[in-house]
Amino acid sequence: MDRRQKKTREAIFKAFTVLLSKKHYNQISVQEIIDLADIGRTTFYSHFETKDYLLKDLCEELFGHIIDTAMGLPHGHYHYSCGTAADSVFLHLLRHLQENDRNILELLTSQNNEIFLRYFKSNLKKLIVTQYADKGLPDNSTLPRDYLISHISSSFVDTVDWWLSHNMKESPEEITGYFLAVTDPLIG
Amino acid sequence: MDRRQKKTREAIFKAFTVLLSKKHYNQISVQEIIDLADIGRTTFYSHFETKDYLLKDLCEELFGHIIDTAMGLPHGHYHYSCGTAADSVFLHLLRHLQENDRNILELLTSQNNEIFLRYFKSNLKKLIVTQYADKGLPDNSTLPRDYLISHISSSFVDTVDWWLSHNMKESPEEITGYFLAVTDPLIG
DNA sequence: TTGTTACCAAACAATTTGTTTTGTTTCTGT
DNA sequence: ACAGAAACAAAACAAATTGTTTGGTAACAA
Which nucleotides of chain C does any protein CB come within 7 A of? Predict the structure, then answer.
């Protein structure tokens, strides 16, 4: 990719991230992003059709990376019953979050956290589906498969949200323990 | 309250609801609401400071009522282990939703459902806290109390979301069964 | 009936949005 | 190094939105 394109794209993402950590998405105008990124008006619109698409692209960069690396992990070792929490993909995700790649923590704890947690959940579902794909589906005769997957995803995202709202006082291992405590009985 | 005030307030809520069922909140302008409600510009702003406050008031009307009636219910009978799902406050909430009071279903299934589910969850937390208050807190030595409450709330909201996304094919009783199946083991 | 309150229409300045136009700078391939 | 292509910028643009003000009308309540 052209060095210039990359530079402006990064400048826009950076400015947008700074603004998102300070005020609500709805209150951010394209003009502000342009001013903070210090680029021409025309340039912005040649990169992103609307503010919504900018958000979408940012989220894909943020979560795409996290989920992709987790996808590469060995599957089927995320049960208490299969050993310890140390094997969990979920533990891996929490550690990744803790590294604060691309200031993702500032976004997840801002007043815009709903937006990002939502994206997080939708990407997480795909990850969980592939994890289950190898292992076979969770054998719970009374509950629909997609209901279970949705439940596990939203439980994990809620766990992350709770953790962040407590300033990540606990270790990723502890949090993984909490999460498995509420979900493992279902799929063991 | 003045008959005129009530009328315009209702007209604004009605217009807003119609718009919310068709397009995204961010894409709705105050002007559109004014036009559809067929009121004067000044009138709108004398009722609601901003679009955000309008949303807030609408949500309070929608969920305040639902939660309040649930608050009045007898507590502590929502375990499988304490009997059947028939006693559950959660079953009551689902039945209430099914009645589609104030077209709440159209809002919960629109592209704005995140917004309303979020409000739903925050109100639900209060309800669950009071439910537990009588019964004593869920006795789970390893998990923090507020983590459990958050988990139960988000699980229920996620259950509702899943139900709605399946066009409410299942009965409220079945759905309550699903929900208790994933949460009851934790608090029994 | 009289005073108060809610409403409405019209106009307003300020801001935002997305596009166009006209150049300038930077990259790329030969 | 040179020429064409691509990215960028500055300025101007119409159109729409926002929130407020002004002046006047209709409905309510005592």
Answer: 5-11, 15-22, 26-28
